[in-house]
Amino acid sequence: MSEGTLYDKVWNRHKVTTLPNGQDQLFVGLHLIHEVTSPQAFGMLRERDLEVARSDLTHATVDHIVPTADQSRPYSDDAAEEMMSELEENVRDAGIEFNDPTTGNQGIVHVIGPEQGITQPGKTIVCGDSHTSTHGAFGALAFGIGTSQIRDVLATQTVAMEKQQVRKIQVDGELGEGVEAKDIVLEIIRRLGTEGGVGYVYEYAGEAIEDLGMEGRMSICNMSIEGGARAGYVNPDGTTYDWLRETDYFQEHPEEFDELMPYWESIRSDDDAEYDDVVTIDASELDPVVTWGTTPGQGVGIHDPIPEPEALAADKQDTARRAQKHMRVEPGETMAGYDIDVAFLGSCTNARLPDLRRAARVVKGREVADDVRAFVVPGSQRVQRAAEAEGLADIFREAGFDWRNAGCSMCLGMNEDQLEGDEACASSSNRNFVGRQGSKDGRTVLMNPRMVAAAAVTGEVTDVRDLREVTIA
Amino acid sequence: MSDPTEEIPEVDHVTGTGIPVRGNDIDTDQIIPARFMKVVTFDGLGQFSFFDLRFDDDDNEKDHPMNEERFGDANVMVVNNNFGCGSSREHAPQALMRWGIDALIGEGFAEIFAGNCLALGIPTLTADHETINDLQQWVDDNPDGEIEIDVAAETVRYGGREVGVTVDDAQRKALVDGIWDTTALMKANERSIAETAANLPYATGN
Ligand code: SF4
Fold it and tell me: A431-467: per-residue pLDDT in tens?
């Protein structure tokens, strides 16, 4: 069993007791809720005549079903309007802060927590959403939970869990020009498999991780769950503290920043911490990674051949064959040159300001290819405002992109943004499952945001490094 | 509350009539199609159980035991292998429970599905192919016949005979001891929760 890691320390600090069923009861420092998974849990509370225990530690947003084009109420989709109204009523009754679109703070749940400074090192954070692992970038212990667990947290501010093992993923070396955090995590999942992390929490460490800004660390922690790990984290450091200092929370409570620093430093993994497993990756060897199949683990370097199913592990061959048929790709070919119909820049993996900045640099002075529909969905209203103020929105619009309001959008196609028929989509999101983007015949190719920009302007999967970049003055 | 076990019903026996749903690898998308997840409560989900297997595109009834009046009051579902595979949606057992199911007996269940059932106090009992086949046949012939499940003893009695079934140890303990409901278990520890919160350095004060 691991010892002396951030995971062990934060777990122990939050452990209330061991339950008779063998699980540990953990105190939850921050509970984030959204419109899709919380209403049933509120319903269960009502059935049992229970109240929300700690509305002060609960924050709500609306993201999955929110329209990103016309947001006037009532929403044109009745089901979406009903979900929104239900959330409004639940948070009003319980006195929970709701970052609805009128506040200017609305956005994807995993974008707004870090933005506002309520995502902090050494906190336990839960949300009824598997990508809650994102918040681990700040050295928080953050994981997605199911509906009955949401009910538990609402009623008690605690959650019942079994402790997992810790795998350190040491990413050495420096990333090459044009290669990003997203490529690191796609490579990790490609190597370890989509179930490789089951039973583990991932600690990301090493030079390449330390060199990343908070946004890059979030992209990596975000996709821990695609590798089977329920949570992933990075030890807090100067980069983390610089981000936190600028947030609303610590601007309003500057004294707390100094008070909390010793705690943050104390929960960092010890130099001699013990891990259940260690995996090492050399970042300097990476090219941009794109997916060729229908799981996030089916990735390949942009210039490497798509694998022969027979060359894969026995239990992967069937899925690979089916995926290649669905995607209409041939083993031996590369993904470069794969025609796309849609370019989607968005999601909690890659729709933060630096992502949009880098993509805009590729797009500037170019035009979206004929027959490609391209759109940008910022991760939050703050990202949207900042990007508009910097002129990024204009660059995208001039190139022929649709500039939208914040939400999950085509990451999962629960609003009107969906693939149609067998369209192929270059996407900065995190899941390429069959049907994920709203059409059962749709084809999703996951990649980093600059690669999405490159695909949008060329109409095909393209190594962004082959395009000359235009610098924004 | 001090003794959490006072709050959680012990599920040591389930008695009622059966409904056979045949087939291996019935996934959660079949149990409750994804489009019915765009809802704010589990309440109305019961009527959408197995919807696409029960109705065609024009909402005409198809052949399915859930459409048969004689099984309308059943509360024990008898299924085959790997039942409930696919996504982790809790909507699946919720839909079955709200249709009226209190227990499932089958050749095998997907792990997450069984876990979600446990969170609702629904036992998932397993037996070999032959035992299940016989039981399904008997239920077909005796839709009003009583089935008696003893979770602790791992037996099922029906039509004058008794057969052995298996329940996962942890699940059996949780159901029989009445410790399957984590909300009640944890709510009982309110004082320790407050102490843990008070010892955290970040702001958790009310
Ligand atoms: S952006 Fe996609 S992955 Fe992220 S929370 Fe929304 S739907 Fe989930």
Answer: 998 888 988 899 999 999 999 999 999 999 999 999 9
Query: Both tokens of residue A22?
Result: 């063998």
Q: pLDDT at position B90, please?
A: 86
Q: Which superfamily is assigned to A6-162 in CATH?
A: Aconitase, domain 3 (3.30.499.10)
Q: Is the pLDDT of residue A472 over 60?
A: no
| Contact indicator for A362, A453 with CB cutoff of 8 Å | yes
> From B171, which residue of chain A is nearest by alpha-carbon distance?
A21
Residue B64 near residue A65 (C-beta atoms within 8 A) = no
State phi, psi for A19 to the nearest 5 degrees: -80, 160
The pair of three-digit structure tokens given for residue A374, joined into one six-digit string: 């391209």
Decide: helix, strand or coil at residue A202. Answer: strand
Q: What is the pTM of this model?
A: 0.90
Domain tally, chain B:
1
Asked if A256 is an interface residue toward chain B (Cβ–Cβ < 8 A), one would say yes
- Closest CB to B189 among A22, A25, A414: A25
Quote the CA–CA distance of A420 and A408 in Å, as a whole number.
Answer: 17
- List the CATH number of the domain containing B110: 3.20.19.10
| Chain A residues touching residue B118 (CB < 8 angstroms) | none
Q: What is the CATH number of domain A165-236+269-285?
A: 3.40.1060.10
Distance (Å) from CA A178 to ligand 1 centroid? 25
The minimum CA-CA distance between A473 and chain B, rounded to whole Å, is: 42
Summarize the confidence of residues A221-228 as an average pLDDT.
94
- Residue A171's nearest CA partner among A295, A334, A286 is A286
Pairing of strands A15-18, A24-27: antiparallel
Listed residue (B56, B57, B107) closest to B84, CA to CA: B107
pLDDT one-digit tens code per residue, A347-405: 999 999 999 999 999 999 999 999 999 999 999 999 999 999 999 999 999 999 999 99
Q: How high is the ipTM of this complex?
A: 0.93
* CB contacts, 8 Å: B206 with chain A: 54, 56
Q: Which residues does chain A have within 8 Å of residue B196's beta carbon, measured at their own beta carbons?
A: 14-16, 27
Exposure b/e, B155-180, CB count within 10 A at least 16 = b: ebebeeeebebebbeebbbbbbbbbb
At A210, the pLDDT band (50, 70, 90 cuts) reads: very high
Write the pLDDT tens digit of every residue in A161-202.
989 999 999 999 999 999 999 999 999 999 999 889 988 999
- Which top CATH class is A289-466? alpha beta
Whether residue A355 has its Cβ less than 6 Å from ligand 1: no
Q: Nearest-CA residue of chain A relative to B169?
A: A21
Please give the residue range of the domain that contains residue B123: 13-178
